[in-house]
Amino acid sequence: MRDTGALGAEKAARAGASAAGGTALAVRRLRLWFRGVPLVPLLIICLVAIASLFAPLIAPHDPLGTNLAQKLTPPAWQAGGKAQFLLGTDYAGRDILSRIVWGARISLLVAALGLVVGATIGVTLGMLSGYFAGWVDGLIMRVTDIMLALPFILVAIVIVGIFGGGIVVVVVVVGLAGWSQYARIVRGEVLSLKQRDFIALARIAGCGDAQILVRHILPNITNTVIVLATLNVGSIILFESALSFLGMGVQPPTPAWGLMLAEGRPYISVAWWLVTFPGIALASTILGINFLGDWLRDRLDPKLRQM
Amino acid sequence: MVVALWGITVIIFALTRLSGDPARLMMGESYSEKYYLELRQSLGLDRPVYVQYGLYIRDVARGDFGQSWRFRKPAMPIVMSRLPATAQLGAAAMALVVLVAIPMGMLAAVKRGSFFDTFGKGFALVGQSMPTFWVGLMLILLLSVSLRWLPASGRDGPANMLMPTLTLAWFSMAALTRLTRSAMLDVIDSDFIKMARVKGAPESVVVFKHALKNAAIPIVTLLGLQLAGFLRGAVIVETIFAWPGVGKLALDAAMGRDFPLVQAAVLVTAVVFLLTNFAVDILYGYLDPRIRYTK
Predict the structure, then answer these.
(1) How many domains, chain A?
(2) Shortest CA gap A210–chain B (Å)
(3) Closest residue of A to B277, CA-based?
(4) Of A209, A296, B217, B251, which has the fewest beta carbons less than 10 angstroms from its beta carbon?
(5) Is residue B47 domain-shared with residue B171, that is, in the same domain?
(6) Are residues B9 and B130 in the same domain?
(7) Contacts of B262 in chain A (CB under 8 A)
(8) Measured between CB atoms, does B246 come within 8 Å of chain A?
(9) What total of structural domains would you count in chain B?
(10) Omega of the bond prior to A253 within 30 degrees of 0, cis?
């Protein structure tokens, strides 16, 4: 493997740590693993994760609670702002800060589930394609060609038009949008892996195709898949927010960042805060994820640099 | 390429037939059963699915996607009439990307560690993290609402083009700056650049003739991909700025389930994408004579 030396050392260290029961060594090992991690992006992602996990505790107001008497209140520091609505309220008097906090939950939920859908389809097809070659390979690679040529946002819009909006449909759509790049890269990895001696040995030892794929090939592409997935999260969140912005994703009154921006758009000339704060949340989350993804790629699989 | 096109027709056809009965959708709430059956027949919906697909392919090969249900006119000419607006926007955005991103990326790579490098890297990372539609909204907020410099929507004059172009180009500018920088850095470290320097070639010749030409392959690849990305971005940008192009047309059609129009729009954009890829492939051979497609 690429990282055999380091991995071996880590394994040895792990064994040593558990034998000695020393936490100091464990801490040092953790430090070593996380060396060079960009701190600000890590902080942003931790914030977003905490917001999404503990949304009911953090949000000062009900994200769905309308209050027309308070509608379009500016942020607290502006003239006419109220201290209880730190980032102001929208056209229905809902608290922007609370909706942003709850929106983190939607974004991360869609991203996580969409990632699982896309990665599962992509990795499975990529492994089959690389391992079996022949017509299976030809078929799967042609399908990825089609996926690349398809203006997928239009297909997504048609799918949402047919099945209606909502989180489940959005998860499936973002998953379908992302699988082809996993398939391509995993296929390449498997093509070279299957020439290796340990695969031949496994076959001599009597392993079937399924066993070789799952027990011997899958563990060796895990790093690649993790890196691809991290680099993919940002674009999934972008895609979901774009769909929601177009009214083809998460449906109102659910607090999602893209949807909040769409709802604020008609009020852009009177209420700047409606289109500003959800966008800042969105952009900084994606920025954080992109930074961390870059770091993780250099850490686990530097040969994906060209991506 | 033919296979990809065929696959796209299958997907589009399957999607549109999955969506329920178009005849009912066309008629709305009130209709007589007799008129409904006539409409079904005239649309060919009473025939088996494979016959419907065969008819569909025959028509598509002729460039006939049927009547737009909303406009009651053939779908293909409608799409074609909107294509110039999108092409105009796409060309302007592409020009902006090339003129800004390549010099910025080169400068960042050549003056490594300088202010330009920091700025280029920062722009690349921040730019790629900002959603297209939010960039558009922020531009409207700044340039239309606060400063009142530019109109926020429509396609009446050159001033209308500035914000949509910048919005559409934004993400690609960031992506290309980053790629140009890293591609140039890869090349600059190579032996032939050192050799050129040792020979005493002037810096401009080293940078433009030796380095840029050898960094061109990934740059051109990304440009091709970004051009395809413009088709996607066009849907969002044209919606925000009420720009009368194919993207907005397709979105409205998809929302109104005007399937002939959606099909025509999707297929036209797919053809544009495939042609772009083809052009990029040809360009490879020109940029790097070692690449040959025939023996």
Answers:
(1) 2
(2) 29
(3) A149
(4) A209
(5) no
(6) no
(7) 154, 158
(8) no
(9) 2
(10) yes
Partners of B236 on chain A (C-beta within 8 Å) are 153, 242, 245-246
Say if CB B36 and CB B27 are below 8 A apart.
yes
Length reported for chain A:
307
User: Domain containing A169 — which CATH number?
Assistant: 1.10.3720.10
> Do both B21 and B156 map to the same domain?
no
Q: How many residues does chain B have?
A: 295
Distance, in angstroms, between B9 CA and closest chain A CA? 10
Domain range enclosing B31: 2-61
Query: Measured between beta carbons, which residues in chain A are less than 8 angstroms from residue B250?
Result: 151, 154, 157
One domain, residues B179 and B227: yes
Mean pLDDT of A190-209: 86
Contact A279 B134 (CB under 8 A): yes
Q: Which domain holds residue A269?
A: 39-305
Phi, psi of B67 (to 5 degrees): -80, 135
**CB-closest option in A151, A272, A276 to B232:** A151
Please state, in angstroms and rounded to a whole number, the distance separating the CA atoms of residues B64 and B72.
14
Predicted-complex ipTM score: 0.76
Q: What tokens does A1 get?
A: 């493997």
pLDDT number for residue A159: 81
The tens digit of pLDDT for each residue in B90-137 reads: 888 888 988 988 888 888 887 777 777 888 888 888 888 888 888 888
Amino acid at B59: D
Is there a contact between A246 and B3 if contact means CB atoms under 8 Å apart?
A: no
Binned at pLDDT 50, 70 and 90, residue A251 comes out as confident
Count of other CB atoms within 10 angstroms of residue A251:
17
